[in-house]
Design brief:
Low-confidence stretches of chain A: none
Radius of gyration of chain B: 7 Å
Order of helices and strands of chain A: HHHEEHHHHHHH
Strand content of chain B: under 5%
Largest sheet of chain B: none
Oligomer: heterodimer
Strand order of the largest sheet of chain A: 1-2
Shape of chain A: globular
Number of strands of chain B: 0
Shape of chain B: rod-shaped
Mean pLDDT of chain B: 80
Distance between the termini of chain B: 21 Å
Chain lengths: ~220, ~15
């Protein structure tokens, strides 16, 4: 219930009407959206019970490792009611054609693969918010100072998931495991996304805000 | 950590 309350408000891409239509505009819109969502994610993390008790260094390490997984998981959950479309924001939905034009076809395919996994599972909001928090604490950062404290936080989130499934999905004792087994595909997809946006950064044609750049650099 | 100053600042803000 804490995680449901902590869930951020809807986000809007609001593409700049002064920019000419094209791939640069689409990528600029997505990078701006990601930058604003990062601010929201940092605020969200603080509402995960126990997160703020970690050292500042460990809070930073977890977010630096997991931010793209959290961003993608949010896109995936927003896209569940749609057919072959990715809901990057309430006002920014991309289909296959649009993704191809912006050079994001590979990423579109990978994220859609995840969407299909969660659709098949009929993932619920309670499960999604818990999975997001688990992804943050399971980020396998190599820079954690207090491994035990992070493990304790992860255990409490894992316990919340198991408790929820024990109550709501007694018909499928494997359900918590099935949900956790989607995390490798999420990790793989996030790695691809980071690589892609890093190469866009190197090309230097798309303006990027400072926080997005900072987080992108922390991943490479 | 100096390189990650925005993240650091946002985590310290008590919002």
């Amino acid at each position: 219930s804490h995680l449901l309350v902590a869930e951020p408000e809807k986000i809007y891409a609001m593409p700049d009407p002064s920019l000419p239509e094209g791939d640069i505009k689409a990528l600029t819109t997505l990078c701006d959206l990601a930058d604003r969502e990062l601010v929201v994610i940092i605020g969200w993390a603080k509402h995960i019970p126990g997160f703020s008790s970690l050292s500042l260094g460990d809070q930073m390490s977890l977010l630096q490792s997991a931010w793209m997984e959290i961003l993608i998981l949010s896109v995936v959950f927003r896209s569940l009611p749609y057919e072959d479309e990715l809901v990057y924001a309430e006002d920014y939905v991309m289909d296959e054609g649009h993704s191809r034009l912006t050079g994001l076809l590979d990423l579109y395919g990978s994220i859609l693969h995840l969407v299909r996994r969660y659709k098949k599972l009929k993932v619920e909001k309670e499960e999604f918010v818990t999975l997001k928090a688990i992804a943050l604490t399971n980020s396998d950062s190599m820079h954690i100072e207090d491994v035990e404290a992070v493990q304790k936080l992860q255990d409490s989130l894992h316990e919340a998931l198991q408790e929820y499934e024990g109550g709501e999905h007694q018909e499928d004792p494997q359900r918590a495991g099935k949900l956790l087994m989607t995390l490798p595909l999420l990790r793989q997809t996030a790695a691809k996304a980071v690589q892609h946006f890093y190469s866009i950064k190197v090309q230097g044609k798309v303006p990027m805000h400072k926080l997005f750049l900072e987080m992108l650099e922390a991943k490479v | 950590k100096e390189k990650h100053k925005i993240l650091h600042r946002l985590l310290q803000n008590s919002t």
